[in-house]
Specification:
single chain; alpha/beta; Rossmann fold; 10 helices; 46% helix; 11% strand
Length: 276
Amino acid sequence: MLKDKQKKDEVIEAAASGKVSRKEFEKALAKLQVELTRLQTWVKEKGARVIVIFEGRDTAGKGGVISRITARTSPRVYRHVALPVPSDREKTQVFIQRYIAQFPAAGEIVLFDRSWYNRAGVERVMGFCTDEEYERFLTMVPVVEREMIVNNGIILCKYFLDVSQDEQRRRFEARIKDPVKHWKLSPMDTESVRRWWDYTVAYQRMIEVTHTSWAPWHIVPADNKRRARLNLIRHLLDSIPYKKVDIELPKIPKVQRRPKDAIEGLSAGQPIPSHY
């Protein structure tokens, strides 16, 4: 299924004993991204439907691994879903309803950057749901995942990215210092530093109750970002029984003859200033 499997294993095993160099990371990632495109072709060919859930502590790297997955793939197949805070109307719906609307059609892979598990995480810890709503959610989710997703023929993969307390604090401090990362900061996110142990308890129970044979949780140690990204993508590829699909590549045709009155370039419009 994966080409040069042994070589990739050696890279990841070497990473386990220390940091992964940028060169090693990019070399291994490039090969995995080739496989992600092969998975993409197979999903389209077979009309398969895939849901991948990315949960985890704040700063654990959910967005980073998703960006590596989608960097070389088609957004028409790999669809990144990161829902905002629910609207007043959505708050009156059945809790999982707005997520169901994002489920994949044939030939799609939906990547949930946080998911319905918000109810067992941030909503539980921050008091945005009642105890009754929380308990009902934990009772309902395993059934929904079995009957509405897995038994309906959708492939479901659930990942929880975990970081240590010290590493989370370090990453928040780095975001504060880096202007291009300021958009990642919010009072809700930084509150997770103070409520570390509340979140620990909430995530532990969430995983215990919703870790099932048909929809298991896969824990990703993420203190080392590069290693976490390689291991997660590799596991995702190994979890789906895809095969390489031979495709007929188009041939580049000869260009038509230039008309006598045609000129090179575009004379209409205004070109942008050249600053670089």
